[in-house]
Amino acid sequence: MNYRKVNDKIFVSLQTGDLINESMRQIAVEENISNAWINGIGAIDNVEVGYMDVKNKKYQKRNFDEHYEILSLIGNITYKDGEPFVHTHVTFSNTEYNVFGGHLFDAKITATGEIVLSLTDSKIDREYNKNIGIHTWCLDENH
Questions:
Q1: Do residues 98 and 85 make contact, with C-beta atoms less than 8 angstroms apart?
Q2: Helices (DSSP H) in the chain: which residue ranges?
Q3: Which end of the chain is less crowded, N or C, counting CB atoms within 10 A of the terminal residue's CB?
Q4: Is the pTM above the cut of 0.90?
Q5: Residue 53's closest CA among 126, 125, 102, 107?
Q6: Which CATH number is 2-138's, of 2.60.40.10, 3.40.50.150, 3.40.630.30, 3.30.1330.80?
Q7: Distance between CA 123 and CA 136 in Å, rounded?
Q8: Of 79, 77, 85, nearest in space to 143 by CA
Q9: Is residue 104 within 8 Å of 25, Cβ to Cβ?
Q10: Helix, coil or strand: residue 19
Q11: Do 73 and 20 contact (CB within 8 A), yes or no?
Q12: Residue ranges per domain, the chain?
């Protein structure tokens, strides 16, 4: 992984074998990121995605083990329990041009990953929402 910070952006080049979310978390720690928006493209395999089953308050997960093109990677970096938390969603296609997507638990880069982090100074924490079973943004000024 290589990255360069330019003003309020960090340009990231992921290499073969790098994990997307783990790499974003590492940068968040190294650069002391308060909050960032994530956008990216690239090529991946070993993809684990899911969707939130709100009724059961549990993610339904699925693994994809072929080679895929990222059509869109989007997400954010906030804080959960005092630590940087990476939340991403991905849309990707296979060699037959079938498209898949969902909440990204993580994926491994096969060729390259090109990601931009748009930074802000406003720290956003997450709090557990018992109604849906996940940690969501807490935008309360007193938090």
A1: no
A2: 20-30
A3: C
A4: yes
A5: 102
A6: 3.30.1330.80
A7: 14
A8: 79
A9: no
A10: strand
A11: yes
A12: 2-138
